[in-house]
Write a structure and sequence with these properties.
Length: 178
């Protein structure tokens, strides 16, 4: 092995230090999660809620990993009602990992040991939002995908329809009409 000059050793050390810092920063960003504990006070639709925390601060929360039918879309009202039955006026814990472009906190919502987001998929009241699958754990992706597949096969909820329109396509068509 050829010995390295002092300058080369310093460059290698700097590169390793910079690389280590970048890896740690990336890891911190990936694991930056916060938890909101509180009382569920409002349901906007099948994937958006408002939680009132102990300090009486309202948090607008978008359920992560799912996309529910919009207001005015087939199954929009039923999806909202389903979510309401699951969590309205109850204590919940929201595990959040980012804010969306509307300022909503994007979270997995838990009612005790129940993953509320997953339950919306199981009930056929939401799609697994594949576009954001990379934000889920491998186990989360697998369980959400399996729940959607099972709901489709059993023709539960919106899957009773012959050709249900995903909300992202419905929104796109709505914007085109405006």
């Amino acid at each position: 092995m050829v010995p390295l000059s002092p300058v080369t050793r310093m460059r290698v050390s700097r590169s390793l230090l910079v690389g280590t810092i970048l890896v740690l920063a990336h890891s911190a960003a990936q694991s930056a999660e916060w938890v909101i504990e509180g009382h569920l006070v409002a349901i906007a639709d099948g994937d958006t809620i408002t939680i009132l925390d102990r300090e009486k601060v309202q948090h607008k929360v978008r359920l992560s990993g799912i996309d529910a039918p919009e207001k005015g879309q087939a199954f929009g009202d039923r999806s909202k009602e389903s979510l309401s039955r699951l969590v309205f006026d109850r204590q919940v814990e929201a595990h959040c990992h980012k804010k969306d472009r509307y300022g909503r906190e994007v979270c997995k919502v838990m009612r005790g040991a129940t993953d509320v987001n997953l339950e919306q998929i199981r009930a056929g009241m939401a799609w697994w939002y594949r576009e954001y699958a990379n934000e889920q754990t491998p186990d989360g992706r697998a369980s959400y995908e399996a729940a959607e597949q099972e709901a489709r096969e059993k023709k539960v909820g919106l899957w009773r329809e012959p050709n249900p329109v995903p909300p992202w396509e419905w929104r796109k068509k709505s914007r085109a009409r405006d």
